[in-house]
Design brief:
The structure holds 2 protein chains of 2 kinds.
Chain A: H1 2-7, H2 16-26, H3 28-57, E1 61-62, E2 69-70, H4 76-81, H5 84-117, H6 122-136, H7 139-150, H8 155-162, H9 166-173, H10 187-211, H11 215-223, H12 228-257, H13 261-264, H14 272-280, H15 286-309
Antiparallel strand pairs in A: 1-2
Chain B: H1 2-24, E1 36-41, H2 59-65, E2 68-73, H3 77-86, E3 91-94, H4 96-104, E4 108-109, H5 124-127, E5 133-134, E6 137-138, E7 141-147, E8 149-153, H6 165-168, E9 183-186, H7 191-202, H8 216-230, E10 233-237, H9 240-249, E11 254-257, H10 259-267, E12 272-275, E13 281-291, H11 297-309, H12 312-320, E14 323-324, H13 339-344, E15 353-355, H14 372-383
Parallel strand pairs in B: 1-2, 1-3, 9-10, 9-11, 13-15
Antiparallel strand pairs in B: 3-13, 4-13, 5-6, 7-13, 7-14, 8-11, 8-12
Helix pairs in contact in B: 3-4, 7-8, 8-14, 9-10
The chains are: A mainly alpha, B alpha/beta.
């Protein structure tokens, strides 16, 4: 550095800032490294670091008798996941997430199609507003509102009664599994609330995907003699599939991690989020809570791998 | 030389140890207020007149001390322990099933009762209660206690049910309809103790002495009873306000509950009442405990004194349907409570209440008991239909 100073101009003592800027100009890689460091540190330490800390916890175990955590690496906590009642929780959650995702795709597709193909100008603005508006109000308010809608003395029951269809609702509620004493204490209720709460996350990506499908393709399909149903099956849905899969990632993962909806609406049987919440808050069984938390990560990993193969991320 | 050096080192070490011991020990005088106080509390425990203007025991304290009171509510003891483990709080209103866990985990610090002038006004039955007085050390100031009552719909029951069997055994209720789907149970593992308490009367051959100290056989019997209950319960209540909503909108007939919900429902003119059935009840006795790393110890001590000496005990016991830790609060007119009100809240039934405790392996009444850790996972299994 001193050598350099001697050979170049005998400049007067320069400020730290100028010298720093010189160094960075001469070494562009250093500049890049400095700029990338904060986000990388965020990702590495705060995000991956905490994830890793969680993962490590799941390899410890709890002493069955004293309830103290034993800091020795073991797989026994994972084995505990396979006990019948814990396996129930996992299967229940995955089944609910899958059902919500499929239903959301079916409900969202026509809405998104209408918005992408037919809505113009103010109509389109209204569509965006309609889809986004529920997201602006508090999630809890929406869930509590649904609890009232679905209650035994709620508006839905009243509507069925007024229409003389109480027998239909009661017949449905007497079904094992999906039924219950009223909609708000049944799995159907939990399902409906999940569907409502996560629907915008499905509509928006599907609509984006449908916007990208050129109308000429649909016309060409029709010109070649395809019936509307065939066009839908062989042209439209395959082209919109990345959008549907992108939306399904949201609905699936959000349902799988949620612990508030099943606590307010449903049969009180646990889902994964609630199990994590309860185990970590109780007798310090953090290992089991951590092992439970790893389950959605694994399932989502598999799911994302599958989605990538289907090209869900090509359009991002 | 060497010897002196060693001696000096030893004495420095001794001083250091002594000092750290003092540092860990309780404080000996109350300094200036820090300006705020963070409390973990049961819902409805700390009211500042926002739910109902008549019930306010915070504003006066804030004005007198300059400590702004910030409250975080928790719905179960497990949530309380979790919040205290996270830290950032000064006080907690811990029930007996949380207090010992926090003492054992060093989450709370000993309390210097000399700094609390009104200590002597506390109910003698609570001064050295085992859920906060451990090894000769006080870990908190008694706050409130009360029974977990049986709440019932007066439309379904013209007369108060006399037994907990209405929520445990399948049967037709007085209105001719079955109880299936119309009863609730508490969504906390401590509810296993309610089942055990029921068995103490109905299956005496099990030899249960305390519902919190169960051996494997007794525990299995309690779980079997709860599995039977699962068939009857449509939803386990977790949040006080959800239960209130369920009694208003879901046609609930009976459930274990707190006087808090009974009072709120009665205030809303819902047809409910509560009773203490023949089997007795479980109950809670809460203690104000101080976090071991409390940032605002001075405000915390001021609050603890405030709980005993102000209108708090009296008005809270009206509001929550609970009993004050200071018996005079029932009668001396410092708040709205009266002697009849305390009797109604079960003040004279102290002996019939089995207060919440944390189940531990090494229990007093028998050789080995099922610890709380197992209660948790097994209760999850029962609710999940296992």
């Amino acid at each position: 550095m001193t050598v350099l100073d001697n050979t170049t101009s005998p400049a007067p003592a320069r400020g730290l800032f100028e010298r720093l800027s010189d160094v960075l100009w001469r070494r562009p890689r250093l500049l890049v490294a400095l700029l990338v460091l904060p986000p990388l540190a965020w990702l590495g330490i705060v995000y991956l670091g905490s994830l890793f800390a969680l993962l490590v916890q799941s390899f410890f175990s709890i002493d069955e008798f004293s309830g103290q955590i034993r800091y020795e690496l073991t797989l026994s906590t994972y084995a505990e996941l396979f006990r019948a009642y814990n396996l129930d929780i996992i299967l229940r959650t995955v089944a609910m997430a899958a059902a919500v995702t499929v239903a959301a795709a079916i409900v969202a597709f026509p809405i998104a199609y209408f918005a992408a193909r037919y809505a113009r100008g103010p109509m389109k603005a209204l569509f965006y507003l309609g889809v986004m508006l529920p997201l602006w109000s508090s999630y809890l308010v929406k869930v509590y509102a649904w609890k009232l809608i679905l209650a035994r003395e709620g508006i839905l029951n009243w509507a069925f009664e007024s229409a003389g269809l109480s027998w239909l609702l009661n017949a449905y509620l007497s079904l094992p599994g999906v039924g219950g004493n009223s909609l708000s204490v049944s799995w159907t209720g939990t399902f409906l609330v999940f569907l409502y709460v996560w629907l915008p996350f499905m509509i928006l990506p599907v609509q984006a995907a449908l916007e990208r499908v050129p109308p000429s393709m649909l016309e060409a399909s029709g010109d070649l003699g395809a019936k509307p149903g065939q066009t839908l099956r062989h042209v439209l849905i395959p082209l919109a599939l990345p959008g549907i899969i992108a939306g399904s990632i949201f609905t699936f993962s959000l349902t799988m991690g949620d612990y508030i909806v099943p606590q307010i609406v449903g049969t009180s049987a646990r889902m994964i989020g609630q199990a994590v919440y309860q185990y970590q808050g109780t007798a310090g069984n953090i290992p089991l809570a951590a092992a439970f938390a790893v389950v959605p990560i694994l399932i989502m990993g598999l799911y994302l791998w599958f989605a990538k193969r289907k090209g869900a991320f090509d359009a991002l | 030389m060497k010897k002196t050096f060693r001696g000096a080192a030893a004495s420095i070490l001794a001083v250091a140890i002594a000092q750290s011991a003092i540092a860990q020990d309780m404080i000996t005088e109350i300094g200036e207020a820090e300006g705020q106080l963070r409390i973990v509390a049961w819902p409805g425990y700390i009211e500042r007149g926002e739910t109902d203007a008549k019930f306010d025991w915070v504003t006066g304290f804030e004005q007198a001390t300059g400590c702004e009171v910030l409250v975080q509510t928790a719905n179960t003891s497990d949530e309380m322990v979790a919040l205290m483990n996270e830290g950032g709080f000064d006080l907690v209103t811990a029930s007996g099933d949380a207090s010992l866990r926090m003492i054992a985990g060093n989450r709370v610090q000993p309390v210097n009762i000399d700094l609390i002038p009104s200590w002597n006004t506390i109910d003698d039955r609570l001064k050295q209660a085992p859920w906060h007085y451990v090894d000769g050390t006080h870990y908190g100031v008694p706050y409130m206690w009360g029974p977990n009552v049986l709440m019932y719909s007066t439309e379904v029951f013209p007369e108060a049910p006399t037994s907990w069997s209405v929520v445990f055994e399948p049967q037709n209720l007085p209105d001719g309809q079955p109880n299936q789907g119309r009863v609730q149970a508490y969504d906390g593992p401590i509810h296993i103790a309610d089942a055990a308490l029921y068995l103490m009367t109905h299956q005496p051959e099990l030899g249960i002495e305390s519902p919190y100290e169960l051996n494997q056989e007794q525990y299995n019997a309690a779980l079997d009873l709860l599995r039977q209950q699962r068939q009857l319960v449509s939803r386990y209540w977790h949040d006080a306000f959800i239960q209130i909503d369920d009694f208003q909108n879901e046609g609930m007939a009976a459930s274990g509950s707190w006087p808090f919900m009974v009072n709120l429902l009665q205030a809303a003119e819902a047809p409910v009442a509560s009773t203490i059935p023949q089997e007795g009840v479980t109950g809670w006795a809460d203690t104000t405990m101080m976090h071991s790393e409390a940032d605002n110890p001075n405000c915390a001590y001021m609050w603890m004194e405030h709980t005993l000496s102000s209108n708090l005990m009296s008005d809270l016991s009206v509001w929550f349907g609970a009993n004050p830790a200071v018996p005079e609060a029932c009668t001396d007119g410092r708040g709205m409570q009266t002697a009849e009100g305390c009797t109604r809240n079960g003040f004279d039934d102290f002996e019939r209440v089995r207060f919440w405790q944390t189940p531990v392996t090494r229990c007093e009444s028998q050789e080995q008991c099922v610890p709380y850790y197992r209660w948790v996972s097994d209760y999850i299994g029962v609710i999940g239909g296992r």
